[in-house]
Specification:
7 helices; two-stranded antiparallel sheet; 33% helix; binds iron/sulfur cluster
Length: 144
């Protein structure tokens, strides 16, 4: 478990258009919480958040989150209104990209088995490193 991880939403929508329903409070990640997802993987059921790892993350560079920047630039908003969110005051995406990130955020899921071309571009960028591609492939094939 990643220290400080919390569940912030439950994944709904469809296989081709997943959509997170936010939880009113962040829920600390425990073995008991993860077990609630059985028989599927926790990332298929929950959206998790964790403290930014900054330079230890493959998406981080030039003192910013490249994932948040690409998501905001590439994806269409899925809501006109600012969605409710239990972690907004401490969210890096919010601090960096503001409302534009939040209006795209609910469509972001960890296990996206049928990502759109736009989502792939947002996650991988235009010239993804082999390290990033391998990480995305691991996520897309981790159906447990
Ligand atoms: S981008 Fe916005 S909606 Fe998404 S986790 Fe951050 S503050 Fe919440």
């Amino acid at each position: 478990m990643w220290p400080g991880s919390v569940a912030i939403g439950v994944i709904g929508g469809t296989a081709t258009a997943p959509l997170m329903a936010p939880l009113s409070e962040p829920v600390p990640v425990t073995d008991e919480l993860l077990a609630l997802a059985s028989p599927v993987t926790p990332t298929e059921v929950f959206r998790f958040a964790a403290p930014c790892r900054c330079n230890a993350c493959i998406h981080f560079g030039d003192a910013k989150c490249g994932l948040a920047e690409r998501l905001t630039r590439t994806l269409e908003p899925v809501t006109d209104e600012l969605p409710s969110c239990s972690i907004r005051p401490r969210c890096r995406w919010w601090q960096q990209e503001g409302e534009a990130a939040c209006r795209r955020c609910p469509q972001v899921v960890t296990d996206n088995f049928n990502p759109s071309a736009e989502m792939l571009a947002a996650v991988c960028g235009e010239n993804p490193s082999s390290e990033l591609l391998a990480a995305v492939l691991r996520s897309a094939t981790s159906s447990g």
